[in-house]
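Note on ligand handling. Small-molecule inputs were canonicalized before submission; formal charges were left as drawn, and no protonation-state enumeration was performed. Where a ligand contained multiple stereocentres, the stereochemistry in the source SMILES was retained. For fe (ii) ion, this procedure yielded the string shown in the input block below.
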Amino acid sequence: MADVFTVLANDHQEVKGTLAELEKGPTSATGATEEQLALRKKMTEQLIIEESKHEALEEMYLWPAVREHLESGNPLADEATGQEQAAKQVLNDLDKLGADDADFEKLLGTLSRTPGSTSNSRSRRYGRCCGPR
Ligand SMILES: [Fe+2]
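Structure output:
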């Protein structure tokens, strides 16, 4: 059975993969069909579910361990959990929109750039707290 840190690292790769797929499009603005838009919405819903589970695991296991075992654990965990709250808000907002909504792609793009999301900034954060993956 995989340890929680392996599960978290695997989650990172899965979410990055899903975001990369979503970034390829097509989008409503680039001529996606109804079927393609439905798939984008479904992929986004799955992303939201996976992210929610992932964040719950981090809150339960990762951040308490960071706080307990790292000298600078408290400010690091505080920063990370603050970023996660921002990402959660984006996910909540995104969950309410259809893939044909004008704000859907904008929010999806924001998610990629939101500290605490699965973006490069998040990857850097993971590098600090979860080790290189
Ligand atoms: Fe994570």
